[in-house]
Amino acid sequence: MDRVYNFSAGPSMLPVEVLEQAQKDMLCYGKSGMSVMEMSHRSKDFEEIIETAEADLRELMNIPDNYKVLFLQGGGSTQFAMIPLNLFRNSKKCDLVNTGQWSKKAMSEAKRYGTVNVVASSEDKTFTYIPKLDPKDFDPEADYFYITLNNTIYGTKWNKLPETGNVPLVADASSNILSEEIDVSKFGLIFAGAQKNIGPAGVTIVIIREDLIGHALDFTPTMLNYETHSKENSLYNTPPTYSIYVAGLTFKWLKAMGGVKAMEKINREKAKILYDFLDNSKLFKGTVVPEDRSLMNVPFVLPSEELNEKFIALAKSKGFVNLKGHRTVGGMRASIYNAMPVEGVKKLVELMAQFEKDNL
Ligand SMILES: *Cc1c(COP(=O)(O)O)cnc(C)c1O
Predict the structure, then answer these.
(1) What is the pLDDT at residue 14?
(2) Which of 97, 110, 180, 351 shows the greatest Cβ crowding within 10 Å of its Cβ?
(3) CATH architecture under which domain 17-256 falls
(4) Ligand 1 midpoint to CA 45 (Å)
(5) Which among 44, 51, 26 has a CA at the least distance from the CA of 36?
(6) CB contact at 8 A, 185 and 163
(7) pLDDT higher than threshold 90 for residue 286
């Protein structure tokens, strides 16, 4: 069977070159005589895999030396608890902007350990925009300021970061890490689950400024303390070795593509093809205000539930899969992460244009 164009929000497409390399290495990695899956995490071979992955990520994201890179488990969702457990050190208060379900989940975990001040929310319009902020609403005593950098479900992203002064900015970049250039030095902590833009599910990357490590609340479980993993270079216990290895292959692939800047250019081109079509269509409609549109997740709707279903079924039959929107938005959502080629988006738009002709 041929490979399909997979528009899944996550886990999502991986570059074919990465899968092929993993296939080549499957039975025997290098001269090790075994698969990476069968390898001790304390072996020389694995040490090199994790160290190279970290070095490549540092190069790709231009991560300053005073930041640690951690390879953790538990998905993005475990960070919703680790962040307050480790960063609530003084006032035990944080500022947060509510831009969708992932922000809400972060909020409910943080509330277990301290006070959450919701600076702004876009819930009034089903999270179809990024709210404007008034710095007067910021709490200067907050231990951190939390945002979801790209909202996977609703298709919005932050284009201008909040100016939080000395309050560390914390960002969930699960669905846009490595998709465009970001200035790591503007953040106290950035985290991302791997399964959207990095590799297979199982590893979560945390990029954290060193001064934020070592102040966890007393009752923080050892495994949820950043200090544990920082001290042991992510080898305190067995890390998700195979996911780290594939993530490393993706970093190599991205470097060969020209790095994040080159990738961003391609991502902007892909998003433009889709948004331009939506803006000019008489049938399809984007759901997000133009200035806050995501480059990675593009939700759109047709005028009726019946047409939505008809389009999703037609697309599936032609090899464009996982286009159904999130249940809270309805319609369709095309997730066009780094591994989605320009051609996939062009062909999807051709199909949409044909559907419009046939159904108008
Ligand atoms: C997918 C996603 C998560 C949750 O990730 P898990 O690894 O499933 O816990 C969190 N935040 C954002 C923005 C996401 O897209």
Answers:
(1) 97
(2) 110
(3) 3-Layer(aba) Sandwich (3.40)
(4) 30
(5) 26
(6) no
(7) yes
Which DSSP string corresponds to 9-41?
SSS----HHHHHHHHHHSS--TTSSS-GGGS-T
Query: Using a 6 Å cutoff on CB, does residue 188 contact ligand 1?
Result: no
> Quick check: 291 pLDDT over 90?
yes
Shortest-distance atom of ligand 1 to CA 204:
7
Mean pLDDT, residues 14-19 taken together: 98
Residue type, 162: P
The reply to whether 196 belongs to the active site is yes
Residues 145, 135: Cα–Cα separation, whole Å? 12
| Residue 172 annotated in active site | yes
* Residue in this structure with the two tokens 């301290």, named with its chain if needed: 114
- Pairing type for strands 67-72 and 204-209 reads antiparallel
Q: Is residue 102 annotated as part of the catalytic site, yes or no?
A: yes
Rounded CA-CA distance 151/287 in Å is 13
- pLDDT greater than 90 at residue 201: yes
For the Cβ of 172 lying below 6 angstroms from any atom of ligand 1, the answer is: yes
The runs of H, that is alpha helices, within the chain are: 16-25, 44-61, 75-87, 101-111, 226-231, 241-256, 259-280, 305-317, 342-359
From the candidates 56, 68, 95, 102, give the one annotated as an active-site residue: 102
Chain centroid to CA 287: 20
Residue 224 burial (CB count, 10 A): 19
Per DSSP, the three-state class of 287 is coil
Q: Is the pLDDT of residue 184 over 90?
A: yes
How far apart are alpha carbons 334 and 71 in whole angstroms? 28
User: What pLDDT is attached to residue 1?
Assistant: 81
- Give residue 360's pLDDT: 87
Q: Is the confidence at residue 353, as pLDDT, over 90?
A: yes
Domain 5-15+258-359, classified CATH 3.90.1150.10, yes or no: yes
Domain ranges in the chain? 5-15+258-359, 17-256
What is the sign of the dihedral through the CA atoms of 21, 22, 26 and 32?
positive
Burial (CB count <10 Å: 0-12, 13-18, 19+), residue 261: exposed
